[in-house]
Amino acid sequence: MFIFFVTIISGGAAYFAVAHSNFEKKSAAVLELKNNPVQEFPAVPDASDLIVNDAVLPEAVSSSDVATPVAILAVEKNEKPVLPKIERNKNPKTILEEAKSYAQPQIISGKYIDISLKYQNMVIFEDGKVLDAYQISSGKKGLDTPVGNFKIENKSPRAWSAGYGLWMPHWMAILPSGKIGIHELPVWPGGYQEGANHLGIPVSHGCVRLGVGAAKRVYDWAEIGTPVIVHL
Fold first, then answer.
1. Domain residue spans in the chain?
2. Contact, 196 vs 206, CB < 8 A?
3. How confident is the model at residue 93 (pLDDT cuts 50, 70, 90)?
C-alpha cells in the first residue's frame, strides 16, 4: 500500500513538472511574438493595372506550401512592345519580291503608285492590293527626287527634255510644273537608250526612271490624277 501511494505522488509531481514546462514555453513564444511582430510584405499591384509577361507560370499550389510571396513580372499597360526592325534585302534579284511582301498600302481605295527611294523600287496598288513592283532609278545626290504626296499631272508617250536634249518615253509628270516625272530610260537623239544598268541606283536628274516594258505597263495602267507617294 505504501508503495502504491508513493507511485501516485511521484507521477503527479512529474505531470505538474511537464505542464509547468509547457506553460513556460508557450509564454516565451507569446513574448517573442510580441517583441518581433511579423513583417508585412509590400502590397501586390492591382492586376487590372498590369499585363503579365508571356511566360509559363508554375502549377497552382496550396497556401500551406508557399513560404514566400511569388513575384510576377509585369509591364505597364501603356508600354508598347518593341518589335524587331526588319531590314529588307537590297539585292536586285530579291528586292522586288520583298517589295511586294513588305509594302503596306497608304491608300486603300482605287489606284496609287508607291515609290521607295531607299530601296529604289516602285509598287503599284489597286484597292489596297499589290499588283506589281519595279526597279527604278531616282535622282542622284544634289538632284534628289522630292519626297511627298503627288499625282499624275499629265502624260505623253514620248516627251522631249529641252534641258537635257533627250527623249523621255512614256512620260508622266508628278509636279504641275512638269519638271519632275516618271518615264522610261531616256533616249538620245541618235537612238541610244541609257541607264539599263543604273536601275536600282539613284543617278537621274530628279525624275523616276523605269526600265523598258515596266514604264509602258505603268503608263498604260495609271490615269491622270492617280496618286503618287514618294518616301524614303
1. 92-231
2. no
3. low
CATH of 92-231, one of 3.90.780.10, 1.10.3720.10, 2.30.110.10, 2.40.440.10: 2.40.440.10
Q: What is the mean pLDDT of residues 115-122?
A: 95
Tell me the β-bridge partners of 123. 114, 133
Question: Residue 8 corresponds to which cell in the numbers above?
Answer: 501516485
Query: Torsion-angle region of residue 170: left (phi > 0), alpha (psi -120 to 50) or beta?
Result: left
Of residues 82 and 91, more confidently modeled: 91
The more confidently predicted of residues 74 and 183 is 183
User: Mean pLDDT throughout 155-178?
Assistant: 96
For 130, list phi and psi in degrees, rounded to 5. Answer: -70, 130
- Stated as kind and residue range, the H or E segment containing 155 is strand 154-161
Q: Name the residue with higher pLDDT: 161 or 75.
A: 161
Could you tell me the CA-to-CA distances from 216 to 45, 178, 190, 203 in Å, in that order?
63, 19, 21, 21
In this model, does residue 152 exceed pLDDT 50?
yes
**Distance, CA of 107 to CA of 125 (rounded, Å):** 8
3-state secondary structure of 208: strand
Which residues are within 8 A (CB) of 205 and not within 5 positions of it... i.e. 6 or more apart?
A: 139, 140, 143, 164
For residues 139 and 162, what is the distance between their CA atoms, to the nearest angstrom?
18
Give the rounded distance of the alpha carbon of 10 from its chain centre: 86
